[in-house]
């Protein structure tokens, strides 16, 4: 009886740890490869939406035009560990900034940021 309880407890624990990670699926972004499809002076807003989807942030620029910002957090395997992951491993951000003049892309910038860089000003204020 005692061994059966231990086996059940271990099985439940393993199913929570291993199975729980796969339950919450999200759309995966591949900013590094998708941004290569965007060409300044050629790509339209509609095409950018097709390639990258809706931006995380949008800004109207003072000098005219628009800025779209895409970002995605990448966590190391240790950082994904339940309960203690925030104290282990790293979290890095991929960021793409696209500037528009009217409907056409004017500039594209890709950056990889540490968590500190992202929090200190990776995004426009």
Describe this structure in words.
The protein is an alpha+beta fold and 125 residues long. It is 33% helix and 29% strand. Strands 1-2-3-4 form a four-stranded antiparallel sheet. The longest helix is centred in the first third of the chain and has 22 residues, at 2-23. It is elongated and about 70 Å long. The mean pLDDT is 80.
Quick overview:
This protein has 125 residues and is α+β, with helices and mostly antiparallel strands. It is 33% helix and 29% strand.
Write the layout of secondary structure elements.
Elements: H1 2-23, H2 31-34, H3 45-52, E1 57-60, E2 66-75, E3 91-101, E4 104-114, H4 115-121
Give me the side-by-side strand order of the main sheet.
1-2-3-4
Number of strands: 4
Unreliably modeled segments:
none
Shape: elongated
CATH topology: Beta-lactamase Inhibitory Protein, Chain:B, domain 1
> Can you give the helix content as a percent range?
25-40%
Helices, by number, come to 4
Structural domain count = 1
Question: Which CATH class applies here?
Answer: Alpha Beta
Major beta-sheet overview: 4 strands, antiparallel
Report the sheet-strand fraction: 25-35%
Structural class: alpha+beta
Named CATH architecture: 2-Layer Sandwich
Mean pLDDT: 80
Key words describing this protein structure:
125 residues; single chain; alpha+beta; Beta-lactamase Inhibitory Protein, Chain:B, domain 1; elongated; 4 helices; 29% strand; four-stranded antiparallel beta sheet
């Amino acid at each position: 009886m005692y061994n059966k309880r231990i086996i059940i407890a271990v099985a439940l624990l393993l199913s929570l740890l291993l199975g729980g990670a796969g339950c919450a699926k999200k759309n995966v972004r591949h900013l590094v490869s998708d941004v290569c499809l965007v060409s300044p002076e050629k790509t339209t807003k509609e095409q950018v939406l097709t390639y990258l989807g809706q931006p995380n942030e949008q800004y109207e620029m003072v000098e005219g035009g628009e800025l779209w910002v895409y970002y995605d957090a990448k966590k190391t395997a240790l950082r994904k560990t339940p309960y203690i992951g925030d104290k282990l491993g790293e979290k890095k951000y991929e960021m793409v900034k696209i500037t528009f003049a009217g409907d056409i892309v004017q500039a594209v910038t890709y950056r990889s940021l540490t968590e500190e860089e992202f929090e200190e000003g990776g995004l426009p204020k």
